[in-house]
């Protein structure tokens, strides 16, 4: 496909916001879910040509295979969550180092795919990451050492991903002096399953300092955390 025809094909279904990162500090993220492999590849190719990097979320095995076939020899890959979230970049094109510091905790291993969407976006926004997994309230003693390490860093904000009863973000918010973002996940079953129980629990928190995003909205949590952390980093540089 020629360059002109490739652009005409892309314009049938996508109007990319290539200046979003410069304008808002949050790069455009390609949600592969609901798109064909051909559409995802066309968007990725355009973003690589224009900005040198592209973050793609909710990648199916079929779309990942198509991307690998199209770009394996020409771009550098970062793979999160066993391929569900990907970053592609031209050689030598790295995210800006903004200096923000983000902590990420997951209550269980099943929360990782959504949490890693947030991690990937924070990295693309130039933040450093401190992370710990499987530290939920069923064994709360597992939380204290990694949380202490995050506070010693010190991180500027903490994302806490949890499904089931969604209790961990409230626990963390009651222990720390930095903003906490509750990320409810659809891990769970029975009454309140699909993340509903976790969401309502977080919204009903009695711990001040906890903000909550929608169920499985890792990108939303990462965008908020990255903005908070980078604004804090900017303030440190002005001291």
Automatic annotation (TrEMBL):
InterPro entries from the UniProt entry: P2CMN_synthase_LarB, PurE_dom
Record domain PurE: where: 100-234
SUPFAM superfamilies attached to this UniProt entry: N5-CAIR mutase (phosphoribosylaminoimidazole carboxylase, PurE)
Top-level taxon of the source organism: Bacteria
GO biological process: 'de novo' IMP biosynthetic process
Gene Ontology molecular function, alphabetical: hydrolase activity
Name recorded for this polypeptide: 1-(5-phosphoribosyl)-5-amino-4-imidazole-carboxylate (AIR) carboxylase
Organism: Roseiflexus castenholzii (strain DSM 13941 / HLO8)
């Amino acid at each position: 496909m020629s360059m002109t025809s490739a652009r005409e094909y892309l314009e049938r279904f996508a109007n990319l916001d290539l200046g979003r990162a410069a304008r808002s500090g949050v790069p455009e993220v390609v949600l592969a879910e609901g798109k064909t492999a051909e559409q995802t590849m066309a968007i990725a190719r355009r973003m690589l040509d224009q900005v040198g990097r592209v973050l793609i979320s909710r990648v199916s095995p079929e779309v990942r295979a198509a991307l690998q076939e199209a770009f394996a020899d020409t771009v550098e890959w970062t793979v999160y969550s066993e391929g569900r979230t990907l970053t592609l970049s031209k050689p030598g094109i790295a995210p800006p180092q903004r200096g923000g510091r983000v902590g990420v905790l997951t209550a269980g291993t099943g929360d990782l795919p959504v949490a890693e969407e947030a991690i990937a976006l924070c990295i693309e926004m130039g933040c450093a990451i401190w992370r710990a997994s499987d530290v939920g309230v069923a064994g709360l003693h597992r939380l204290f050492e990694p949380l202490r390490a995050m506070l010693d860093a010190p991180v500027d904000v903490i994302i806490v991903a949890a499904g089931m009863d969604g209790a961990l973000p409230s626990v963390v918010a009651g222990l720390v002096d930095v903003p906490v973002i509750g990320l409810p996940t659809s891990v769970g079953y029975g009454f309140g399953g699909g993340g509903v129980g976790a969401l309502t629990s977080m919204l009903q928190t009695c711990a001040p300092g906890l903000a909550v995003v929608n169920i499985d909205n890792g990108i939303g949590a990462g965008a908020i955390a990255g903005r908070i952390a980078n604004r804090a980093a900017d303030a440190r540089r002005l001291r």
